[in-house]
Write a structure and sequence with these properties.
The chain is an all-alpha fold. The protein has one domain (2-103). The chain has four helices and no strands. It has helices at residues 2-22, 44-50, 54-67, 72-103. α1 runs antiparallel to α3 and α3 (54-67) runs antiparallel to α4. The radius of gyration is 16 Å and the shape is elongated. The model has no long low-confidence stretch (mean pLDDT 76).
Length: 109
């Protein structure tokens, strides 16, 4: 669960930076709804999108643990995605902050 939280934290930082750059969040969040559906029943396009959301790997790891299966590959992906999203989130938020300061728009959204 800790690895899922770290990955999700990085994902949220990247998402927040993207929202600050784009200034419109309603269309960006629609594709994150694939989290609650088991990956086996998703259409191919939705399955590919679900692979970039760290919470999916955490949910799959818990499902495998409850079924008595090995969870090594989910943990590896959680670590890799957590690190990637942490770096991307840090960079996106920093860029958004610099851009908003330069434009003088830090007080508006």
């Amino acid at each position: 669960m800790l690895l899922t939280g770290l990955g999700l934290g990085g994902f949220c930082m990247a998402y927040a930076g993207l929202v600050l750059l784009v200034k419109r969040a309603e269309n960006l969040g629609a594709w994150t709804q694939t989290v609650v559906v088991p990956p086996q029943v998703l259409p191919r396009a939705a399955w590919l999108i679900s692979r970039v959301i760290p919470l999916n790997y955490g949910i799959e790891a818990v499902r495998r643990l409850l079924a008595g299966k090995v969870v090594g590959d989910q943990l590896l992906w959680l670590v890799l995605l957590g690190a990637a999203y942490g770096l991307a989130g840090w960079a996106l938020l920093g860029r958004a902050q610099r851009r908003m300061r330069a434009a003088g728009t830090t007080g508006e959204f």
